[in-house]
Amino acid sequence: MRILVINWQDWKHPMAGGAEVHLKEVFTRIALRGVEVHVLSCGFKGARRYEELEGVRIHRVGSRPTFNFFVPFALRRLEDRYRFDLLVEDLNKLPFYTMFYSRTPKKMAILHHLFGGTIYEETNPLAATYVYLQERLIPRLYRSWPFIVVSESTKEDLVKGGVPEGNVRVIYNGIDVEFFRPMPKYVQPTVLYLNRFRRYKRPDLAVRIFALVRRRLPEARFLMAGKGPYLESVKRLASKMGVPVDFLGFVPEEVKAEVMAKSWVVLNTSSKEGWGLVNMEAFSSGTPVVGFRVHGMKDSVRDGYNGFLVEYGDVEGAASKVLQILQDRSLRETLSRNARRFAENFTWDRAAIETLKVMAEFL
Fold it and tell me: Which domain, by its residues, includes 141?
């Protein structure tokens, strides 16, 4: 079997996120099983136009802002050269509409989540409307395609849009439970935000939540790790509110695993997730999560079992749940054990095997 996956970015891209983790973990494993895997993605400064990464052949064209305009021409060249059996559109940003120009006979899609109205929290109204309208086309133009999605919430969005339920298969993300493992907690009560600093992730609400936590528990500490275009705005907000925050910036994977495991609770304030890879890393590390009851979050956080959920934007409610975990050792330890037990059910090997099975059945 020879397949081509089109993803806006590959996992070496500086802006790579959860979708690129999924791309790497699933398709490198599929390549190890003898499938010839190609990825078409955008270029970036210092990147090679072609390289092989862990058995996957990476072809890069254009740049992040221009990639979708290069795809039709690059795809036709690759199809002429390799004659793929299957084309996979990894729809984690704009769709590529390959049904209009691809000659590969079999096509399917992978979808992490649809932004929907949350895109207006992320960018200006004109750009947001552009993305919103393009997303609205996905259930219509891709209606007959098989879909792999990472959560029931994403499946629900597709089915509501008009994709037949039988065309959508849920395959949950995995987690490396050997790498993300429990460690002794910090002595000081510590809350962690570890995510990209983008508006729709709502790191500003995380600062406001911790401000309420610290009023009741002055010895509590707040770590914020990650990078993104909204970082400086969040720093200014914390300074203006007088909230002490340790901004760690981008952290390498080893440091991420350490702070995730040593923190007492992870605060995930995103307005929408596909599945919540950050949540799963926290759970595997034995750390409960507090967040909002929104798509993706409600799939991975089991309220009262491995963390707590409150209604979106309920800053006081979230602060109350964080305090409950920080101040109740018995509850904290129970949630931590449950979190680790929950994470152990999800592996990348399982996700890759199930993905390959769906592809083989389709072909």
Answer: 2-174+347-362
